[in-house]
Amino acid sequence: MKISIIGAGYAGLSSALLLSRHHVNRITVYDRFDRVQTIGAGILIQPSAIEILKRLGLYEQLIDRGEKVYHLEGINHRRRQVFLTSYDDYSPNSFGIGIHRSLLFQSLYDKCKIQSNITFELSREITSLADLQLTNDLVIIASGSHSKLRDQVPIKQTYQPYPYGCLWTTIEDNEISRHRLCQYLRYSQEMFGILPSGLNHNSKRIVSVFWSLPTRLKATYSLENVLERMKYYLDDTHSDFFEKLKRANYSFAVYGDVYMQRYDHENLVFIGDAAHAMSPQLGQGANMALIDSYFLDKSLREHNDDVRIALQMYTHVRRRHLRFYSQASKFLTPLYQSDRQIYGRFRDLLFTISKQIKFSRRMSSEILCGKRISWIRNKEIQY
């Protein structure tokens, strides 16, 4: 089967790697940049995606360079713990893996490069799907949340930019936030996150730092004011870490929400953020991309005589899981990023109560793990 993949991100590369295992497939990966790379800070790989990494043969490499994360903790501006979500509430010995996004990317890319049936076409921006659709058995669009290629298919869809983005940087530090993702919160107007992100290329432990910021302030914010607010949340034992924050270089990231009524059209399929970008609040972007690639490969194997049926089955299989996380994202994001103080007050009250209830703790951990598919039924994704 002749396959074209547009976009060399997590979704595109993991799909290429899985599909290359069927040696009759000839795969071309297109990317608009002259060299394949990723930009950004750390990510948290969830148990839902760890299973895919094991199937890809990448787990050992990532666990060696990453840092196990056992808890997600939220502390408000009054120094009170608002929530503590533990992977143990889902399953004993469960954990996430905090890594820098470049490690996952490079691991996927290096493995793709040694596959004889994968070819890369760089500096090739695909602006029209028509020609590829005619000359390929399958076209996979994995070109990210801002992809203009969605406009070329007759599928009901929406794209909504988020009013909040974030400042981010990475810091070398051996002590802070070990084995837990910490979020410091003032209602829904301030969020300061510290994510353990494994080892960098110098084998130094790093953490990723995030500061929530309205996009309307992108050009006018004061870094000095942001640093003062960061300092407020750090106690005196972290004075060295604050000095590193002062010396760091910061970038600004923006996000958007993508909805597609279905993900397939004829022999085209949209995966990853190109199909269902969500707020980063749940931290599921890379995880969903890996899961997409697994189920796309599975559908094609089960219906290898008819690509269109396989893609329809893929949409059917992924819809419920993705719909749940889209709903969760829309509900939870304003509780953390909003101009309305009342949302943050509601979150603090709700989570303070729910963390004391075993069922609520279990459900929160299932959502964090990336496996839940229903608000009511206790059901999770099956591989």
From TrEMBL:
The keyword Transmembrane helix does not apply. Signal peptide: none annotated. GO terms for molecular function: FAD binding; monooxygenase activity. Keywords: Monooxygenase, Oxidoreductase. Residues 3-79, 132-320 form the FAD-binding domain. It comes from the Eukaryota. It holds the Pfam family FAD_binding_3. Gene3D superfamilies: D-Amino Acid Oxidase, subunit A, domain 2 (3.30.9.10), FAD/NAD(P)-binding domain (3.50.50.60). This is FAD-binding domain-containing protein. It comes from Adineta ricciae (Rotifer).
